[in-house]
Amino acid sequence: MASQPPAARGRFITFEGGEGSGKSTQARLLAERLKHAGIDTVLTREPGGSPFAEQVREFILGQKHAAHAALAEALLFYAARADHLEATIRPALTAGKWLIADRFSDSTRAYQGAAGGAHAAAIETIDRVVVAGTVPDLTLILDLPPEEGLRRAADRRPAGAASDPFESRDVAFHKRLRAGFQAIAAAEPQRCAVIEASGPAAPIAAQIWRTIEVRLLAQRGL
Ligand SMILES: Nc1ncnc2c1ncn2[C@@H]1O[C@H](COP(=O)(O)OP(=O)(O)OP(=O)(O)O)[C@@H](O)[C@H]1O
Ligand SMILES: [Mg+2]
């Protein structure tokens, strides 16, 4: 019996960037466009993306003690990520699907590392254990002045609702965060593309689609 060629692994795309930079909006638009192009696509998010990881998300976003170690927070994100990878991401990629994650490891590097002060080397060690070979094929980093992103996030909130524990950190934190994402993009230009995220959503989506065409679809001969 002739052996079957191994099924093509899907593609793993992540959206990264600061608060209100448009990740969830653009991730949704990209998922719709890929589905329209006939590509079996799964849209997921972090923290979360599997039943257990969604429970960890509730704990992280409901944190009541502002003063806590950035490394402790990073470990919670990696606990959620380990399950997200096992339950959702790897099965989808093995089945040949394209998986879009709204945030992934770079958010931990930027929030708990660059902005929060956890040692980069510690985060990388944990990342190698948890993520192992499941590194994104493409990471879209949405870049926006933090004041603009925070304004968008505040406008989105229902009247009287409190900001989440990350939105409510000071502007200096959000500036370190932006610099952290920019440094990741500079260090890994093969994996990352920086997308200028100010202005209306439609032209940003068009730029993201061009990036997908050049970096991923051309490789598949689509
Ligand atoms: N290009 C844009 N211009 C103006 N507003 C936008 C744009 N893209 C998204 N928004 C709006 O800004 C708010 C934040 O967008 P979105 O939720 O997509 O950002 P996010 O990066 O996922 O935020 P968070 O970091 O809080 O998850 C939403 O109300 C959204 O409708
Ligand atoms: Mg979002």
Description of the structure:
The protein is α/β, with parallel strands linked by helices. The protein has one domain: P-loop containing nucleotide triphosphate hydrolases (Rossmann fold), CATH 3.40.50. Helix content is 54%, strand content 12%. The chain contains eight helices and five strands, in the order βαβααβααβααβα. The chain has a five-stranded parallel sheet with strand order 2-3-1-4-5, with helices on both faces. Helix 1 crosses helix 8 and helix 3 packs parallel to helix 5. The chain starts with 11 loop residues before the first strand and ends with a helix. The mean pLDDT is 93.
In short:
This protein is an alpha/beta fold. The chain has helices spanning 23-36, 51-61, 70-94, 105-115, 120-130, 146-156, 171-187, 201-220; strands spanning 12-17, 41-45, 98-102, 138-143, 192-196.
SSE map:
Elements: E1 12-17, H1 23-36, E2 41-45, H2 51-61, H3 70-94, E3 98-102, H4 105-115, H5 120-130, E4 138-143, H6 146-156, H7 171-187, E5 192-196, H8 201-220
Parallel strand pairs: 1-3, 1-4, 2-3, 4-5
Helix pairs in contact: 1-8, 2-3, 3-4, 3-5, 4-5, 4-7
The chain binds adenosine-5'-triphosphate and magnesium ion.
